Protein 1
Amino acid sequence: MSLKFKRPVAVLLATVTAIPLATSVSAQSQGTASSDITVTAEIPDLATLPAGPEIKGIISARKGDRIQVSTADGQRTPIALSDTTQVKNAGLFSSRDKTGTAALLNGLPVTVKTRQWNGGLVASQVTFKKNDAKLASMIHNGTDQRFGEQAAATEALRGRVGDIDNYLIKGTTNVNFDTGKTALSEQAKSSLCQAATQAEATNNALLLVVGYTDATGSQEYNQQLSEKRASTVINYLQQACHWKPYRMLTPTGMAMADPVADNSTPEGKAQNRRVAVNIMVSKAVEGM
């Protein structure tokens, strides 16, 4: 089995990196404006600000005193941090984290209580699990021996690969979506965790997630929709199925390209509204 992509292979084989902060703090919390978060005034006493929503997800970007949290449904919410933001370890014996906001690294699953400020959100409390923080720190610093060995193996693997055809696809799981939607069904959630379990049992496996749409709508709309679907799957694999971020190839959206069925029928369109989760192993590593 082979994959055909219209994007450069280098893009597909890049490791997951920090997502640029996509929305200004003065925009709506669920917006997708292209400018960075901009703090234009000193944050007042948080107790005086109206309550905002509680956000659960993974920190997908960090820039100074601002973070972006990506939720399981693909939403990216920018949140400002203040000197009085409480950072806590969750667990049986929860406690204030001594490192403060420095512990809030990319890839860390968090629960954020927010306040409304300056047209956006500011964090009043950020909670995370100690083990999750350790993993995020390992990925960030690359100093843990076990992570270092894994990272070295991954980089060596990529160094041998000049083309996607040099990968063996050990398995592919397709999950489908309703028209124009990015939400995962219960069946899709179950299938994703089964795929992660299968990949975990495969030596040196990486996951490549690719989003697709049917032929309904414009190319620009479908490109964005396919990317959001891929992002939703990535978030669920990492948050609910516990797949390690450093074993994930960069997700991509392919819009209406490479249909698996006829787009002129409702049944065919339903099959094309999908995200493919591919278990990838380098031929070079496979033959070692």
Protein 2
Amino acid sequence: MVRSRPAEINQLAVAEVLARHLWSSPRVPGDEDVMARQLKDTVARALSGSLLSRSTLTLFIDAFGISGPHAGQLWRLWEGSGRVTVLSGQNAMGSKAAMDLREALGPRRHQTVSMHEHVDVGPDGHLVRTRTIQVVEATADGLDRIPYIYDTNALTLEVGQGCGEISGELYQISDGVYATTIPLARELSVGESISLEYETIWGCQGNLEEPNERQFRRAVMQRLENLNLSVTFHADKLPARVWWAVWASASGDIIEREQVPLSRHGVQRYLRSVEKTVVGFCWSWEGEAPTGGVAGASQA
């Protein structure tokens, strides 16, 4: 860009990226010589939402190197998938647990812009790890850490990009609710954001007949934008059935469920917005789906 303006996308700069991609990866004759100004109308229509063709979306994904999960999200949005939804509930946790969390963690100082969680289930049928990519934005100056909450202490947390060094262990906030903090690699001022990557590695292995060994859930206490949950099963241990489900609360029963098919040994669901509810996947090796389970809790 020759000149940039806050909160404004420079359409000619975007067109320049697309043109340079076409020079090296032409799709039709003439792409090798296309100029950015020739693509400006295409960019304007795409960014305004007035017209976005399949070929144009493909060009954006390829030119900007958009990753697999995010590219998949774009295609679902483009196709108008009913699975791209907004979901709101009454309460993700009981009133006492929620009060204990507020007292222990204090006022919210961040919001989550997006969260992608990918769960691996091993060949023995147990949860192995959850890989999380979370983009957070500071809502108060001096944000240097975020809370990490789970309803089990049988896990290990390993941090990566965007995270500082962890010094503490999980501590108990209330019955069945544990927490620690994830330090940020840098302190944020209001409006600043950072992308975090971390892994939850599951500890003790239980009986596969128990409900918490056959599901993964995300409890959202406040509001969470752009939640993408996926579960991949080992080829040697595929479930008989998998459901996308909504729970009454972290300790409640399933109130909605929808059977979903496996695709490449896994399942995936994207939600544009989630608020005060518990969502996730449950599965059965045979028989019916469980009602309880392991859940991460987000203050987002």
Protein 3
Amino acid sequence: MSSLSRRSLLAAGAVLAGSRRIAAGIRSAPEAARRLGCTANTRFALNAEIWYGERPFLDRVRAAADLGYPAVEFWPWRGKDLAALGRLCAERKLEVAQFTAWGFEPGMNDPKNHDQVEQEIRASCQAANDLGCKAMTVVGGNDQPGMTQAEMHAHITTALKRVAPIAEQHGVTLLLEPMNIRVDHKGHCLYGSEAAVKITRAVGSRFVKINWDLYHMQLAEGDLCGHLKDGFDQLGYAQVADTPGRHEPGTGELNYARVLKELHDLGYRGFVGLECWPIEGEAKAAERVAAADAWA
């Protein structure tokens, strides 16, 4: 064989080897991305309203699966193609961790709205059953003119007692979410975990618990681990975002490795919602979430 032929073959072999390395890199990049959501200790649910927000809703759900997350959460179910969502989740082996069944207005804290609350909770429970979803968030409501905070909280308790049997019948847990009023929800009647715990304990149903949004709780009261210990019996779900800015863990002041470990040590094994706005893109946000969950 001539040296020219040998050089040609060697060059061709080098090109082929390089092509294989490039192809392997192309394959490994998505594989690496899929591993980002397979976190060490906590099962996270990507918020499909916030992450990949420029994409159509179902494409956001696909992106959650591509990152390797086991579940998604979202806000109102109305206006979404639930049948298509259910098929997609089954295909991609995703769960729907929770969605919003009752929002800020009309307020659950006004008894004139309780008939409507009951009707909507019935419909939402059916939607949850159709999706295989086991939990739904409900919001107490904004301040009602002429009512004290104690009166509004009493009305929320009454409403939840009324719909608790409906939730139990459908096997769906209602998650009451307290907010913060320092930054995001001025004029909302329910903020901080202590008031929410008092309400759900008064309701006295294992199907009425708290959506413990740790971002809201940091702004409303601080001492996240201490309050989690005090009210853990009423925790039904948790959400995370860092402060300030409501971006992913690792971008602000919170030591989320410590907080997530506390949740785990207390015995929580449910999903944790990623209700946070990625500050430098979703892949980077997923890396930061994984890093926050990498505690021993």
